[in-house]
């Protein structure tokens, strides 16, 4: 498509957008009494309008039914989380039986490592990417220390080449091969939080299995953003937060994937709790644990219903639209944003360097941009003028135009405000 950096062209794209009606199904903050341009769906998605209805329903059932809400609410609480398995399975490419929702992301990764990090003899090392999200770094370090290993020896970080912003798949595969039989686990972020790079999860997972290691993925920036086929890629486990691209609210519940081949392994190490027992015998209060024959066996406690309600509300929208349509718009709106950035770059003295990969299969919704010659003042200008972006040191802004609620006119308007911020600085 031949893009134009004009409001008229952006409006034409919006008129043709099959998702244009969904913008009105989200609530936008306002700055200076004007709806913001929101680029931080990769950090916290906007609130869907239907969220309040789902939360109010739980509050009403609690008020009118109290404990009986577990069984007699319109959506009974005792199996509330099960309603999420089918829509989530479509989003991450899994079987519904391989999905459960519980806890929060890092908690779930710790719990899953009980099952999938089993150091023994010379096989004790974990492979991850360098400068992974800090929570993952802390998690991995604490896990290997718990097992009695030195993180400096047990954790192998895949490096970027000097002067390059992104990882090369060939370097990842070479690292996996070199660690070989010493590798117990590969655990990486499916999408790099800083650059937005999407990893070749299928190829990396196979390479890990070829050396006898388990392979898991942190999909905090992947779920609801990119195409995933966790079952077909033979991924062992994965987890993700729900509050970024899936708009479930701050710090909300986390989703988990556990491949079906592990479901009926009676000897698999696992921390267990009441809600992982078989439903039909759960209230018999048996002293022995009888695991569910699906991913729910990893559940510990009864589900936090008030936390799950907003997630279920958002999943209703995903189920209506489907990932294929979201990804199609994502590709177009990100390409248009990149065009707008390049157009503004040609008009000002500052230089913008997009450090997110240019290949379509190596990026999702996010563009990370080095603002060479600019500093924090430009970020502050954008925020004061109603453009909500994310700043990362030293001078990178992350832009994530979520396809559900961002418009093409937003992209054009952002470019004009960005140019104004740079020119105003230059004129002072």
Automatic annotation (TrEMBL):
Q: In which pathway does it act?
A: Amino-acid degradation; L-kynurenine degradation; L-alanine and anthranilate from L-kynurenine: step 1/1; Cofactor biosynthesis; NAD(+) biosynthesis; quinolinate from L-kynurenine: step 2/3
**SUPFAM superfamilies under this entry?**
PLP-dependent transferases (SSF53383)
Its EC number is: 3.7.1.3
What positions does the domain Aminotransferase class V occupy? Answer: 74-250
Catalyzed reaction equations: L-kynurenine + H2O = anthranilate + L-alanine + H(+); 3-hydroxy-L-kynurenine + H2O = 3-hydroxyanthranilate + L-alanine + H(+)
Keywords in alphabetical order: Hydrolase, Pyridine nucleotide biosynthesis, Pyridoxal phosphate
Could you name the domain of life of the organism this protein comes from?
Bacteria
Q: Which family does it belong to?
A: Belongs to the kynureninase family.
Q: Which HAMAP family match?
A: Kynureninase
Recorded hits in PANTHER family, A to Z, give: KYNURENINASE (PTHR14084:SF0)
Name of this chain's protein: Kynureninase
Give the gene symbol. Answer: kynU
């Amino acid at each position: 498509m031949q893009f134009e950096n004009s409001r008229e062209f952006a409006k034409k794209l919006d008129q043709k957008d099959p998702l244009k009606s969904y913008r009105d199904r989200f609530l936008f903050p306002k700055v200076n009494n004007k709806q913001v341009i929101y680029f931080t769906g990769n950090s916290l998605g906007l609130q869907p309008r239907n969220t309040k209805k789902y939360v109010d329903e739980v509050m009403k059932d609690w008020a009118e039914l109290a404990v009986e809400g577990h069984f007699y609410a319109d959506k009974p609480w005792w199996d509330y989380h099960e309603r999420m398995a089918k829509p989530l399975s479509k989003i991450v490419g899994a079987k519904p039986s391989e999905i459960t929702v519980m806890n929060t992301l890092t908690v779930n990764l710790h719990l899953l490592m009980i099952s999938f990090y089993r150091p023994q003899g010379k096989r004790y090392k974990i492979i991850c990417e360098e400068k992974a999200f800090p929570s993952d770094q802390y998690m991995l370090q604490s896990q290997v220390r718990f097992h009695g290993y030195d993180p400096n020896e047990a954790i192998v970080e895949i490096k970027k080449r000097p002067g390059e912003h992104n990882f090369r798949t060939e370097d990842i595969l070479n690292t996996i091969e070199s660690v070989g039989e010493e590798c117990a686990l590969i655990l990486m972020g499916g999408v790099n939080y800083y650059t937005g790079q999407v990893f070749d999860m299928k190829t990396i997972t196979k390479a890990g299995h070829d050396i006898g290691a388990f392979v898991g993925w942190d999909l905090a920036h992947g779920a609801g953003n990119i195409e995933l086929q966790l079952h077909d890629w033979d991924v062992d486990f994965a987890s993700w937060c729900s509050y970024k691209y899936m708009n479930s609210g701050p710090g909300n519940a986390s989703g988990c994937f556990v491949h079906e081949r592990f479901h009926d392994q009676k000897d698999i190490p696992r921390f267990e709790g009441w809600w992982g027992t078989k439903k039909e015998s759960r209230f018999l209060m048996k002293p022995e644990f009888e695991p569910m024959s699906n991913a729910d066996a990893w559940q510990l406690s009864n589900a936090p219903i008030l936390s799950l309600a907003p997630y279920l509300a958002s999943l209703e929208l995903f189920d209506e639209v489907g990932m294929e349509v979201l990804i199609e718009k994502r590709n177009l709106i990100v390409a248009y944003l990149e065009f707008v950035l390049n157009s503004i770059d040609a008009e000002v003295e500052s230089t913008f360097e997009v450090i997110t990969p240019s290949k379509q299969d190596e990026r999702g919704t996010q563009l990370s941009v080095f603002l060479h010659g600019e500093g924090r003042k430009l970020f502050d200008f954008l925020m004061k003028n109603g453009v909500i972006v994310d700043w990362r040191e030293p001078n990178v802004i992350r832009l994530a135009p979520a396809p559900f609620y961002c418009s093409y006119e937003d992209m054009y308007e952002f470019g004009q405000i960005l140019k104004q911020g740079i020119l105003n600085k230059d004129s002072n």
